[in-house]
């Protein structure tokens, strides 16, 4: 663990028995005592809080901040309302996907951008390089990295209850918004390291966030073109290997897979040629030189129950 960066909640993770590992140069808890299976089921049934403070948090200032952001990502950033956020993608000049991110238009006249820790250096270089290009052309835009603690709440019942203004003003964090996990809040890095205990009232898992279902050569529209994205369920292990349609053709590729504790079977995601994408289609997935039967399944595998701000 020597030389690894630490989040503001590092001491809290250690106090709660977190098994700390190296994730993208950060000391992060891989799991707590109950293990991954129990933590997953707890989150599905109740609620868990994730420390994602290792993610890159960037503030974008200046009157040309929207022009700057829209030159890098897909999505209509100009139409975001104050304190409204959107999931988006950094794209290359060729339209390839570089990383996913969340952009929030704050009521404090700046954009708040959260992107993945594993792509931190690449994302920062991309944003800084574009900012310098626009500045050289006379644009008003500048960047600032935020060192706030960042927390993600994951639960099928994730929501912020209505509170009277005095109680709302006393909440531990000043910003809340939708994220990939459900809801997210950030607070100064000087916040007491044990305060999440009072929110959770028990130990909960905290795992490093991993982004994943895209590559530099894939485009943002790939799922709607000749290679639709699908979700096969498998009767065996799964991995980043070709998926095969009988008898010997190779119609696609599995991008990720893992066991599903809720469904008690293995699940995966990948891309296949359109003629093999119909729900119920039987495929063979090659895993460690062995063929495993798989069935194309409608996604999401587990029904979602999102709370939205609409």
Automatic annotation (TrEMBL):
<dbReference type="InterPro" id="IPR028896">
    <property type="entry name" value="GcvT/YgfZ/DmdA"/>
</dbReference>
<dbReference type="GO" id="GO:0005739">
    <property type="term" value="C:mitochondrion"/>
</dbReference>
<comment type="subunit">
    <text>The glycine cleavage system is composed of four proteins: P, T, L and H.</text>
</comment>
<dbReference type="Pfam" id="PF01571">
    <property type="entry name" value="GCV_T"/>
</dbReference>
<dbReference type="InterPro" id="IPR006222">
    <property type="entry name" value="GCVT_N"/>
</dbReference>
<feature type="domain" description="GCVT N-terminal">
    <location>
        <begin position="9"/>
        <end position="144"/>
    </location>
</feature>
<dbReference type="InterPro" id="IPR027266">
    <property type="entry name" value="TrmE/GcvT-like"/>
</dbReference>
<dbReference type="GO" id="GO:0004047">
    <property type="term" value="F:aminomethyltransferase activity"/>
</dbReference>
<feature type="domain" description="Aminomethyltransferase C-terminal">
    <location>
        <begin position="252"/>
        <end position="302"/>
    </location>
</feature>
<dbReference type="Pfam" id="PF08669">
    <property type="entry name" value="GCV_T_C"/>
</dbReference>
<protein>
    <recommendedName>
        <fullName>Aminomethyltransferase, mitochondrial</fullName>
    </recommendedName>
</protein>
<dbReference type="GO" id="GO:0005654">
    <property type="term" value="C:nucleoplasm"/>
</dbReference>
<comment type="similarity">
    <text>Belongs to the GcvT family.</text>
</comment>
<dbReference type="InterPro" id="IPR013977">
    <property type="entry name" value="GcvT_C"/>
</dbReference>
<dbReference type="GO" id="GO:0019464">
    <property type="term" value="P:glycine decarboxylation via glycine cleavage system"/>
</dbReference>
<dbReference type="InterPro" id="IPR029043">
    <property type="entry name" value="GcvT/YgfZ_C"/>
</dbReference>
